[in-house]
Amino acid sequence: MSPARVTVLLVLSLCLATAPSSARAHSPGMVFQAFGTATIDGQLDPGEWDSAARVDFLANVPLVDGGGTTPATLFVMNDSANLYLGVKVLRTQLNTGDVGFGLDQVVFEFDNDHNEGTEEGDDILLLSPGINILGVSAFFDEVRTTRSPCPPGVGLCGFLDVQLDVPGTNDGAGAATNNGTFTFFEISHPLDSADDQNDFNLGVGSTVGFRLVVNLSAITSCTSDCQSTTTIPASGVRGDIVIASADSTPPLISLNLSASPNAAGWNNTNVTVSWGVADSDSGIVSTSGCDATALTDETGGTTLTCSAQNGAGLSSSNSVTVKIDKTAPSIGFSGNGGAYSVDQTILITCLASDGLSGIATTSCPAVASGPATNYVGTTNATSTTLTAAATDNAGNTASASTTFIVTVTADGICRLVASLEKADAICARAMSIATAPNAAAKVGGLNAFDHFLAAQSGNSIAADLATLLSRLTHLL
What we know:
By secondary structure, this protein is mostly beta strands.
């Protein structure tokens, strides 16, 4: 390299080394991640950067060009091999002393190990198209270093990878054009150049910090032109680049249940939950909670979640809530006295309950209610059975029954008619029938009582009661 060329590179490197806020390459909060490919020709072709992550900012204009600011945009994306960086700057007013747009430059400083510090070995990319005037490439692949030829006392400098005492390689490309309205800078740099001494090495999902410096019309040195340095946002060109993948689809997670829930969402058996995790594009990198799980205890709702991340850094999750009730409903009867006489009143009620999934259907209330005489059959000591069934929301079923007996006695008939005008006569006849010494006497007593009831029916004894008393006494 000729002395003139080395001098120019040293000027650029020193300007970079003394640029403001160089102690930190990035800060959290601004993250760029996008997949795409650009052609490095300095042309902002339609659609070329549509998939890129981007941010608008204001670039400072040198005083020789009127000062103030001008709109600019940063574009970031990568494909499987390269990182692509684009910077668009509105650039219509150029001082007559400027050599076109060629002395403008963009500089990207990287924090290779992502520790928010500028240090030995960090990567630097610089594009300044006007350098071609001196016969030197407009694109420079540099590295932060304290080694020679860094001037004594300067600290960390930026020098070409190929200049250092452990020579590296010049990796990447850059181009810029000005169409009379704006200047567009395009840079590419390998994600892994194999020049591990001087360049970063990034894969899908890797994060690298960066700082962008835009210098407009940096004619000779940094003495005045560094005052035109612009950062994103106004406080600093800092952010993180996360290497994207062509895979834009998160992992597919399928759910498998050994037993499917019913329409109400319940199971009444043990359930084993298992997952299927797949990503045909970039593969599965990690999973969490995706092991098969056997649920054997009753539960009102146990939620299991399977999460997975693919090789592109995309994540997805799938969850299921399993409800298990293996216990049948409870059915209870209350109020059953067991044995009743004809003068008593019966009130037996039924209640079905389920403490977990709840009752879905039930034949409760199965109720016996009203005078005991309603439950007298064709024989004495009539037995009545009440039956109820219930199903809970998990599909468990239960049934239960209860039985009571109504017995007809002369004493019971006496108590039944105690309030009637003819109570004594009715009671005496009932007692006589119940204590008849033989069948013939009993038949005679029944016939006499039926004649008595017929005579009183509708008068002193209601007709329906007369019929009932006849039926009861025939059971004595």
